[in-house]
Specification:
The structure is a homodimer of 247-residue chains.
Chain A (H helix, E strand, L loop, with lengths): L24 H17 L8 E2 L1 H8 L3 H13 L3 E4 L3 E4 L4 H25 L2 H19 L3 H18 L3 H21 L11 H10 L3 H17 L13 H4 L4
Antiparallel strand pairs in A: 1-3, 2-3
Chain B binds a DNA duplex (30 and 30 nucleotides) through helix 4.
Chain lengths: 247, 247
DNA sequence: GCGACAGAAACCGTATACAATGATGGCATC
DNA sequence: GATGCCATCATTGTATACGGTTTCTGTCGC
């Protein structure tokens, strides 16, 4: 249930409140937003987990007002679900939503590849290869959480290179939601992005072959999708003992 | 400082809580959100117009807290821009952003057409034809504001029929932003959506011809895009009381 | 006459207090 | 012993107060 926080250790995460500089308020909010968002994307906060305003306010050393703002932002990105008078919890995507997200990625990410192939510079290609390398490293060393986040970052950066900020933002949101989907419907040991898929993709892009990159991205996404167990779970009788055995 | 006597007296007076339904708080916020959003989409609030929290709070009879929540939501949809310590104003899209939005619409709306053609039912087709009719009527009677909103609604509803809620939401947001773009770069008398474009599109969809619908949608969007120009309009201070007088 | 500075007002950012509501657990009754 | 009701509690929703920053304006100096 509620993971009873050791209240004795409730230090504000990083010298906070009355410490002179107030100008960092905005940055601080941004940092807190990323903290929570990362925790969700890396599955340290699992779908369904409740996010109480008081608790978060205490952890980060700001008032509920700021937390609410952040929670609303996360809700609009569909990473958390806001239930009136019940508070916030990490979104648990349905199988339908998962299907929608992957169909959308198929359309947008694939559609972006030709433009990316046209625009990508050598520096950007190198940057992406570095990111792909870090994903591989994380996968090899078993850091699945890190791998998921890094992989999402790779796809997001790729979309940015298309030059269309609007579509890039869409892709980033879709990737975040994909992380949630992996948390619910993914199988351990079968993480979506295969080891060298990203590198193969980079080869097509660097050679300016947009069409092959597009086709490859399509297969890549299909492979991730195929690795999911998208059968609807029985909502009727969940095994509470198994689900909460870790608590 | 804390005059709690007021607190005890504050009780029923306004009758906000005594008027039976208390649950309308959420609905009220939703209604206010739509009021502002509609005012922006219909160009009663023009790009660049400042939206002061105090003024809005007074107009709608709620506190700044609620207004801020609504403003933040609008900001995440990119209808308003939030400048730190400067407050909110109606977003003035740049030419680049306009280009991005129309490129995105080109990709997503066109890509959705085959699926829409496959799924559309007779009832839905009729509903859309009715919407197209209302757009035409508004155009004929010179109600450009109404026409813009109705046209955006048409495109949004169309996307919903694809069955992909995620992409439909994207399209709705793109259409809202398109309204803003029309306000800044559009020419009077040359409203984006031509009179029978929507009807022609419906014919293709009803006959199940997804490919032709897709091609036609592409031309339709290109035509809107081509009708834009880069001349910027002046911005006058809006009279919030007048704009929301009907509330 | 023009520019710069200072004072004042306006306005946003944050925290806190209060009200309302859903949840939980105990108690009485059947 | 089980079920329904009631009281208490926990948690969110909303408003308001306070502090800081920006902006406007009026005056002074050049």
């Amino acid at each position: 249930m509620n993971q009873r926080q050791d209240a004795s250790q409730r230090r504000p995460a990083g010298g906070v409140s009355r410490t002179g500089k107030i100008g960092d308020g905005a940055e601080r909010h941004e940092a807190i937003y990323h903290s929570i968002s990362d925790a969700i994307i890396e599955h340290r906060l699992k779908p369904g987990a409740r996010l109480r305003e008081d608790a978060l306010a205490e952890v980060f050393g700001i008032s509920r007002t700021g937390i609410r703002k952040i929670l609303q932002r996360l809700a609009l990105e569909q990473l958390v679900t806001l239930t009136p008078r019940r508070g916030a919890s990490v979104t648990r995507p349905t199988a339908d939503e998962a299907q929608d997200v992957f169909d959308a990625r198929q359309m947008i990410e694939c559609g972006l590849m030709p433009e990316v192939a046209r625009r990508i510079t050598a520096d950007e290609a190198q940057e992406l290869r570095d990111m792909a390398l870090r994903v591989r490293q994380a996968l090899r060393s078993g850091e699945q959480s890190a791998a998921i986040k890094l992989s999402a970052a790779f796809h997001g950066r790729l979309a940015q290179i298309s030059g269309n900020a609007t579509l890039a933002e869409f892709v980033e949101r879709l990737c975040s939601r994909s992380s949630l989907i992996l948390a619910v419907y993914g199988n351990v040991g079968h993480l979506g992005c295969e080891s060298h898929d990203h590198d193969d993709l980079m080869s097509f892009l660097e050679s300016g072959n947009g069409e092959r990159a597009q086709a490859f991205m399509g297969r890549h996404l299909k492979a991730i999708e195929a690795s999911l167990s998208l059968h609807e779970e029985g909502v009727e009788a969940p095994d509470l003992f198994e689900i909460f055995s870790g608590y």
